[in-house]
Amino acid sequence: MVGGVAGEDDLIEVEVFTRLYNVPGLRYELTRSETDINVFRNKTKSAALLDYDSGNMVAYPPGAETESIYVEWVGTPGSGAINASLTLTAYDAVHGNPVFSDTITFDPFESIVIVFAGEFQVPSDPIADPSHGIVQFAIDEYRNGYNVFVYDEDDLSSYGAGAPYNEVVNAIMKQGITNVAIMGYSHGGGATYDLAWRLNENVRAGATLNDITNPFSVPFTAYIDAIKRPTLNTAAVEDRPPLSAFHVNQYETNSAIHGVSIPTSDIDDDVSLRPNMDHFSIDDDAQVLGVIRTEWQLNVSR
Fold it and tell me: Which of 84, 205, 223, 246 is the most exposed place for a label (fewest CB within 10 A)?
């Protein structure tokens, strides 16, 4: 979920617990309901259990009481299954009767969430600094089941080009994603505007780009003390992001660098009077992050 990090992938790790894995007389089978998912023994996808060349059932000899397998959604957007399940069944090897089984269901995402860290915040999991509140927020929501990618604001050019934009284009054009949510702190707020601006260049009248031809919407955006970019810019972002259906703007005025009111926002909140509030603490404030979490979850499906 940390954008641009080596080894990042879209695989889902599934932990398999088979306490009786070495008991004589038991055998295990792994079954998928649809070919929209592939299953591998490792992250490199070099040891397939269920893939394009297999059927929907495979013998599964566990190598340990607890081990991980990796699931990849490969269904064609709009034409594949609504969801797919994976079932592990233990059989009486003598009589062929099932002893017990467990099933997990996979639902493809409808939305992608792009989160931009502030200036000098480097996204990592776990976070490198406990004061990187927006990064921890992104990690928490990723673990809560959302399709979250967190980026350094420098990963995006002033005109919205770069890895975050490419991630969104790929999601809309190849993964069946129809909703894009964007949020950012400080210069990450500026990046939020820049990304939305570039997405809009694909759909506005007289559009200058045609990277995106599938329909999409931007149901939610959020600024935390948003500052225009590039790096040396200290002026506040003054405009709501293009395409945003619901926008949250939270800012303070206690610091030399700070955001400003954007009256067109759906929520426009000056939080300056809260204790110890300044530009460097605002993205750690539980109330600030709580407002974003509440409104995001109301407006954005998984």
Answer: 205
Per-residue pLDDT of 22-55, as tens digits, reads 778 888 899 999 888 899 998 888 889 998 888 8
pTM of the entire predicted model: 0.81
- Whether residues 41 and 131 share a domain: the answer is no
Torsion angle (degrees, nearest 10) of CA 18, 20, 26, 27: 20
User: Could you report how far apart the first and last alpha carbons of the chain are, in Å?
Assistant: 15
Among 45-54, 60-69, 73-82, name the one with the lowest average pLDDT.
73-82
The alpha carbon dihedral of 22, 11, 13, 84 has a sign of: negative
Q: In this structure, how many other beta carbons lie within 10 angstroms of the beta carbon of residue 274?
A: 14
pLDDT in tens, 171-224: 898 888 999 999 999 999 999 999 999 999 999 999 899 999 999 999 999 999
7 occurs within a structural domain: no
Say whether both 121 and 205 belong to one domain: yes
Shared-domain flag, residues 131 and 71: no
Q: Are residues 174 and 258 in the same domain?
A: yes
- pLDDT value, residue 75: 75
Residue 4 maps to a domain: no
Between CA 162 and CA 216, with CA 262 as vertex, the angle to 5 degrees is 45
Q: Classify residue 147: in a domain, yes or no.
A: yes
Domain count, the chain: 2
CATH of the domain at 41: 2.60.40.1700
Average pLDDT of the chain to the nearest whole number? 89
Burial of 135 (0-12, 13-18, 19+ CB in 10 A): buried
- Cβ neighbours of 191 (radius 10 Å): 35
Let me know if residue 98 belongs to a domain: yes
Separation of alpha carbons 105 and 167, rounded Å: 25
Strand partners, 182: 114, 221
Angstrom distance (rounded) from CA 272 to CA 207 = 39
Within the chain, how many helices (H) and strands (E) appear? 4, 14
11's tokens: 């695989």
